[in-house]
Structures
1.
Amino acid sequence: MINPYLTIPQIQTSLKKGDFSCQDLTSFYLDRIKSLDPKIKAFITITPKVALDKAKEIDQKIKDKKLLGKLAGSTMAVKDIYLTKGIETTAASQVLKGYIPQYSSTVYQRLVDEDAILLGKTNTDTFAFGASTENSGFFTTKNPYDTSLIPGGSSGGSAAAQSAGLCTFSLGTDTGGSIRQPSSLCGISGIKPTYSRNSRYGIAAMASSFDCPGAFAHSAKDLSIVTSVMAGNDPHDATSSKEVVPDYSSLLENKNLKGLKIGLPKQYFTGSIDPEVKKNVLKAAKTLEENGAQLVGVSLPSTDLGIAVYYVLMPCEVSSNMARYDGLRFGQSKKDIKDLLSYYLETRGDYMESELKRRIIIGTYFLSAGYFDAYYLKASKVRTIIKKEFQDVLSHVDLLLTPTSPTPAWKIGEKVNDPLKMYLADVYTVCTNVAGLPAIALPTSPSKTNLPIGFQLIGNYFKEADLFSVAHQYQSLTNHHLIHPKL
Amino acid sequence: MNITPIIGLEIHIQLNTKTKAFCSCSTDYFKSPPNTYTCPACLGLPGALPVPNRQIIKKGILFALSVNATIQKETHFDRKNYFYPDLPKGYQISQFYKPLIKDGLVKITVNEQEKEVRIAEAHLEEDAAKSIHQRGHTLVDFNKAGIPLLEIVSEPDIASSKEAKIYAQKIQQLVRYLDISDANIEEGSMRVEPTVNLKIKDNKKTYYTPLVEVKNIASLSAAAAAIDYEIERQTDEFRKTKQEKNPKNKTTRGWDMDTKKTFLQREKEGSADYRYFPEPDIPHFSISDDFIDSLQKTLPELPDAKMARYQKELTLSIYDSSLLVEDKDLALSFEKALGEKPQKDFAKFTANLFLGVIKKHLNETQETIDIKRIKEKDFTYLFSATQNGDISSTVAKDVILEVYKTKKDPQSIIKTKGLSQISDTKELEKLAQQIIKDNPKAVEDCKKNPNSIGFLIGQLMKLSKGSANPQLAQEILKKLLG
């Protein structure tokens, strides 16, 4: 019996020792998916052949004593908006169903090149539009801690797979909180790096100036290993940074907790926050304080405008990014239509999910002649102010510690008919995306009802190494990340 | 009614880069099999991203420098959103809020008068794909999708179809001199779209007719014809309806080559809403003064400057100069033939050979000049041979054409064809006597009016196949006629 929650270094040690082969490990995960996923519903597509072929290739390398990739033996679940050449990619939308990509996303390819093994493609809210996976065009993923609850979203499929021990690590994208919020709700670790740190090439775009590919794992250390492989400049993405990528996992002890200044922004601990969430997040801060860190009260006065800025700018970009889904070249389309206009209307009308349409309509409205200045331009200005507030605060403290989600996971169906309530699920995560800062989400003590609760550490631009280091030390002091759901 | 046409031109030129505007696909699409030069980016596949080609910015700046325009140093791309099957992303990457180029000026000469046409702005954008309508189906060829374009928008400073044509030719000439575009209208690498309306003064009141943009224009003469048609049509229309321009009644009309008429394509152009917003996939960029300076240094001598120099240094006429600079390659070939610091006589001689022979030949054969066939030594040889009286200037013209066509050297052509000038007096006397014998009437005339000797000289030249020394022939004829 293999422990499904093995970390990357543990797998590599076992492979070296010959405890199991890559094929054994891969078959184990595939079997586990087969038995558990009907309950969790994390995967849209499972790729046993791709997985076993890759595992066989790695086993051969081990046998031939060839150089192994940095992720050899690590199995991965990939959010279904990452393009995977030859493997159906749907973005969990009916409008893209059946699309077999001609090319692979850069970050996915980098992971495969380092011998990661793809187990399958995971569910998400359609095109990452949501916070619960209920907006998926196919089905809703269940929270492994309680299958009557949502796993969070939009990267809920990857988060649930991670939490249920169905993979070594998984990929998500974080546009307004879509990695950190499900991390928090599923009790796992997740990283949203600096905007531009990871290439967006080959990932179906949601809101281009916010989209941030990232990962989930069983520990901060695993996240640091995976991020070192994913990150870096990509000539296919003009916005990707040329900043050098450090070997994060070798810097895990670098940031000394002693004297570390951690800012607690007051705006993140007021309002509609669940008292237990607040208490447990502050408990995490306390743990760091007890180990030498200094907690500093700070203020980010424009925090409450973050949601407004995000829900103006994001749909603008969405409305334009969704235009290519016209049914002419990929995905599903209507047949026997009388003219071009009906073709567009019926294809988009029938195959686009309602949240997708809602955002197209909102974005189209904001960008219309006469409204551009009042919405897009104004929101862009506030975006600059939010950035500046973060920069000011981060010039005084090393990093910020805040809750990730105002509540633990909620019931499936509870907010699905109230989009505004759903949008507020992003309240603590969205400003980081507005500013483009990196943040790592970690579990703290669970609730009395044993539901996971999470917090995040927000760092300055390109300070991922600091985040990994502090997160790793936190996880060395605590064991919240070692709690797993009972399945 | 006093009518003044108000015309502005939108000119699209395809920039002649090796790769497309936002991906690394080849731009060599013309006459290539459909969909051979495509990639995820120019097909608009999910997840694909645009990466701007530095060359398009460079070429845009060169244009700006050539028309003394303002270069907006802090600039970015915008998305222009609309649905069309040939627009794979559902938006065109263009520039709207901060076009690269603003406020330029082009000088044109109309009826020997200089006129200025202001350029409001010029911006970079990508071309759409090509729709092919076939047997009731529409097929799309994405080879052209993403080809870089520079859209040059003039102010409505143009007042006639003639001015419009001259302005468009001037733009064409400029971009070819700058080597930023082939600017070939027939092949679609240059497109001209005039916007026309009229200012009408009637009973001391002034009216403006609704704006009309004309599309589907396949040549410069079609542009002129379409403008003339619109002036006439709008005049008639105004007489009938008295309708005036307002922000919502701009229309788009197409030009029909066969009927030589424009037809209504789209109404209410004024309400088109492209929902422009900054392209988030391409970072905003700054253009440094150093970069502009380095490009300024590579700027070639432009036609206006060249023309002025030909007049001043070579003392050529305005007319000859303008013909020589019309085409950059012709001008460069001419300068190659002249060599360094040419004498004025030699320049005049060479200009005559270019305009009287080579350009005529190129026009007849519809060829472009092959600069490799132009050698300074051929021209200097012919010039001195003419000066020495070895050959006549007529022969020089025949020989240079032969040199250009056959790539042989002039000496051997003169030798094989026996074109050396006859300066032998006895030989000439023989010919002169023949002419006097054959033209009794002209001889009579000449005796009455010595100035009419030119006819007899002409006949003699003809008889000698142009090889007689005309100076000597005249002296001998005069002597024989006493």
Note: Chain A has a mean pLDDT of 96.
2.
Amino acid sequence: MGDKLVVLGAVIVLVFLGIAIFGPQFAPYDFAQQFRASPGELLPISVMSTTATGERLLLGSDALGRDMLSRLIYGTRTTLVISISSVLLATILAIVLGSLTGYLEGSLFDEIVMRLIDALLTFPGILLAVILVAAWGTQGIEIGPVTTTPEMTIVFALVFTFTPRLTRTMRGSTIPQAHRAYIKAAQLMGMPAWRIVAFELAPNCLTAVIIQSTTYLGLAVFSTAGLGFLGLGPAEPQPELGKILARTQEYFLNRQFWHIFIPGFTISLLVFAFSVLGDGIRNVLDPEYRFEKADV
Amino acid sequence: MNAGTAPDRGARDNNTHPLLQIENLRVHYSAGRQKLNAVRNLSLSIDAGQTVAIVGESGSGKSSAAMALVNGLAGNGEWDADRIVFKGKDISRQELMRLRGRAITYMMQDPSGALNPVLTVGDQIKRVLKYHTSLSKAEREIRALELMERVEIPDAASRLQAYPHEFSGGMQQRIVLAMALAPDPVLLIADEPTTGLDVTVEAQIFTLLARLKRELNMSIVLVAHDLGVVATSADEAVVLYAGKVVELGSVDALFRRPRHPYTIGLLQCAHDLHRDNILNPIPGRIPGLEERPTGCVFHPRCAWKTEECESIDPELAPLDGQRVACIHHQDVSAATPNS
């Protein structure tokens, strides 16, 4: 049963990845195009709307007359890009910081980094990301000559939220390995510290952090959509799943509340698929868990 | 010699100086405000092509002494020496440290731990070559294979792609040895190289070490607690007790005529198949770093102890080519017959 769920999760994730990558090819319309029911009047909110020019919109339109299906496809793309790149960046950062602090356990560098991380850990869950995005704004920030895109702002905020815990995990798995004889052997061979950390130590300590980061993918989708829902997503007209969900509130006025299920179900499905897949990856990578299962 | 051989291989033989001389090596560990002496004034002189053994019980400081030579002491450990002479030239500690990994390599005790579990053994050997030689990628490939063959690993070409866990303990130690030989060292420090291996494998490793030492004209510092091993594979031995050298000399002399009560005790502990003797252990145990007695460190366990021993810390005194640190050495050697 568990294995089948993992396969299902993997299939769903792959389908969503396909949508994200090839979305622009098969999205029926531009996500920002506003359709009109008649000249001068925006398309009303409904399913299977037909526009003044005769296009039929499969999932209807939003309050601004834009095609729901196209926005959903582009929104999935935005959400996935933000969540996957934030988890990826956070994981890389955590591997670097965690292996260095673990190798240099007790040093000044270790103390400084870990106390900063402790400080970041005091913010519960998504709150830190909310504060950061609110502070930086959703229009992008200027860092010297480079201006970040709004998406990058959200990615940075999420990296700040994910990195502390991942770094702790990486450091935790690095410390016991750092005291193993092969590290001593590498030191006695006269290898420089950075080589030892990068090539000898870190590759032996990745399992736990990779397991944790895969489970973070679901959380990242949830957080990205959450930020979007709270109005901290990318600026209009860029679609994003959380933002689309927030806009479905407008359907309530039309007594078509079930519209909320279109983006809502999409988000749930993505989070579910990533969670199941993360569990599956853990089962493969974590031998202890595998043995536990075999005993039963 | 193939690619990767040090160019001064021949020049080394013309040298009449000892390869490495250390005068008064001291190692101490700091614990809080205390400084605990692990090794006191150990002097070593290693000739080219010679094997010098550092012998002692656990806690005698033999590993600390060996680790100091490659600057591998634990974080709270520090070492110092009055003089370090390498190939007839005075060098600083920093210069000695720069030799490690190239001219001086270290072979770890526990072979299964000394190899990185996630890399193939071939990669690990090539990594040493990459870091310590100027060989090209293709040359490193050839040299790695040559090293595997040199340490007598059967089917070396295909075994390069194997991971450490696919090898037995003896084979793992051969790979550790191959890695230690990769930079073409002039001195190999082998810290109990056969710990955890069974007797037949132990014999194979020492035969291999002896052959390689001859072929490569390499010197070896052998850290050992097993006198049998020392008798068969070392030229000179330094007997260490509680961080202090109690006796040193050629292995022949030490075994024929031990002068220090501790050396005698150690020899009596050794198995002897030909004499149907009962093991005769030395009473008591080696004192810890913070409980070293005054006077001669061995006096609490010594059968020759007199009152003077509790106050006088004997110096190493020369005696027929050996050197011994015991105020009663004349009585001791008179009482013990040549064996």
Note: The mean pLDDT of chain B is 84.
